[in-house]
């Protein structure tokens, strides 16, 4: 599965020991128009089980995670609901519009002392969404990775080229790569704060 292979690539880059501050890594993969990115940092009080529980609570994203305007679980008998959840999500990107997609989130087995929740795109279901409601993701996979006092976030995504013009596509690919470090650091802080108050 794509999310498992992605987590493998992330974990190969996980720094040994507790990071002293925010660390960011990015790399090319598969000739895609965006890099895969991973940020990790020490955050006092991070409880890995609480983090993964928060990540799996997709119906609570709106109001707790920045720029998420719609997020809801979608019933699907293919997934058990406790350790796997299908969901629809719409994210508002300042100045560039909204992106939406359908994803499946997986609670993975702990690995090297880290608790992990990772997701992958449902291509057919996302392709069936209306481009009038927002541009659709061509690919989108990522992971939250947590250990006591440490939180990491990894992401690889790009818009469907048919849904955006040339300049917007550049902003959402090359521009996104340039901004990735700052965005990932903000996401880490937001998730740590939310999981602590749940």
Task: Describe the protein's topology.
Layout: H1 2-11, E1 23-27, E2 36-42, H2 48-56, E3 68-73, E4 84-93, E5 97-111, E6 114-121, H3 123-127, E7 135-147, E8 150-159, H4 166-197
Parallel strand pairs: 5-7
Antiparallel strand pairs: 1-2, 2-8, 3-4, 4-5, 5-6, 6-7, 7-8
Describe, in plain words, how this protein is organized in 3D.
- This protein has 198 residues and is α+β, with helices and mostly antiparallel strands.
- The chain contains 4 helices and 8 strands; from the N terminus they run H-E-E-H-E-E-E-E-H-E-E-H.
- It has helices at residues 2-11, 48-56, 123-127, 166-197, and strands at 23-27, 36-42, 68-73, 84-93, 97-111, 114-121, 135-147, 150-159.
- A hairpin with a 3-residue loop joins strand 4 and strand 5 (97-111).
- It starts with a helix and ends with a helix.
Largest sheet: 8 strands, mixed
Number of helices: 4
Task: Estimate what percentage of residues fall within beta strands.
Answer: 35-45%
| DSSP summary, beta strand count | 8
Report the structural category.
alpha+beta
List SSEs in N-to-C order.
HEEHEEEEHEEH
Over the alpha carbons, how many angstroms does the gyration radius reach? 16 Å
Distance between the termini: 30 Å
User: Uncertain runs with pLDDT below 50, 5 residues or more?
Assistant: none
Round the mean pLDDT to the nearest integer and report it.
96
Helix content: 25-40%
What overall form do the CA principal axes indicate? globular
